[in-house]
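Backbone shapes recur. Consider a single case.
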Amino acid sequence: MIVIIGAGLAGLSTAYHLKKDYAIYEREHEVGGLCKSYTIDGFTFDYTGHLLHFRKKEIKALVSRLLDSKLNEIKRRAYIFSKNIYTEYPFQANTYGLPKEVVKECLMGFIEAFLKQGQGARGKGQGKKNKTETFEDWIYKTFGKGIAKHFMIPFNEKFWKMPLDKLSSDWVSWLVPMPKIEDVVSGAIGVGKKDIGYNPIFHYPVNGGIDVLPTAFLPHINNLNLNVKANRISLKNKTVSFANGDDVKYDYLVSTMPLPELIKFCGDCPSKIKTLSKGLKYISVYDINLGIKRNQVSDKHWLYFPEKEYSFYRVGFPMNFSASLAPEGYSSMYVEVSHKDGREIPKGKLINDAVNGLIKAGILKKDDEITVKDIVDIKYAYAVYDFHRQKAVPIILKYLSDNNIFSIGRYGAWEHTSMEDAIYHGKVTAQRLNKKA
């Protein structure tokens, strides 16, 4: 028997691809994990921005099949708001429009960094991982002092809530766009390319929120158990104990719960593994959802805010993903504020700071009627890629694998990955299990 804990995308995909007996257990009353949506007063909000960025043809084909091709293909309209100016994403390839001294500083800094590395070395080394290089050093080496000063450092310090010399650089290869020198020069004079980065095109359901994706798996899986919370795992006896008093034996266990939570439940794992797990850090996110009684408060999809005067680091506009997400004549927004778990910010302050910042940025008007104000606190939002994680996660995952436990997905593998990756993790894990006796 294969036991799957968690009915998010990774767990559902595992079940979908398995050809052996399994049971899937989910502690919530619905599937999806954080890939879910909720409706309030006619607005549909996801648990913050959930957009599909396909890099693997087989996963795109699977999702298209599951949703009966009811996906919008959307050309990205993403911008950075700084110096009271909108510049296109990514910042490093679109500085045109900023104050001339800022453009010069960014351009000269990039050229200096480019020449320092050497064209050949830069081209060959972008995808390589340097295990001792800090994120801060990588930023200066890759983009130069100007881009570091005006976007990369302030944005990432705001987001990660920690000095960037405490973070490793082994996660940036596909997430942070690394343009060529001609792209940076072209972007400084206003003729930049519009399709740089991993997400120039994204997909989103035609109707409904992102929760239609996990729901689409349901006709294809069985033995799904909802409202069942695991609270203890015995590695020795290969059993999972649940809060309702049930004990279930397994041959293999697939877990998609956050890795530190899984280790807490494994009472008989060695102290070394427990110590490594306790050192894993994460960033939490307040997802502030707003409904505004005004049509089209913005024509953009999402915006980045690097400057300290704004409490939030990103703002998105769901009604521009799908018109079905807001009532006719209204606009919807999600506003993201990162924080460290345990350092709670009062709800009133969160909303007031967000609204005042949106007014200052010219997105909201002082007389706008905000009909919905709601907050979702996402505890495990992003795994922190520090040097402890770099050392600890491979050791923990190997130990679990040696004990017939596969910890997968964004939080199970404790990594910064996409919805597509979660589905792929489930597929690969199922394929491995299908081959086992």
About this structure: The chain has three domains: 2-70+206-280+386-435, 92-191, 283-383. The chain has a mean pLDDT of 93.
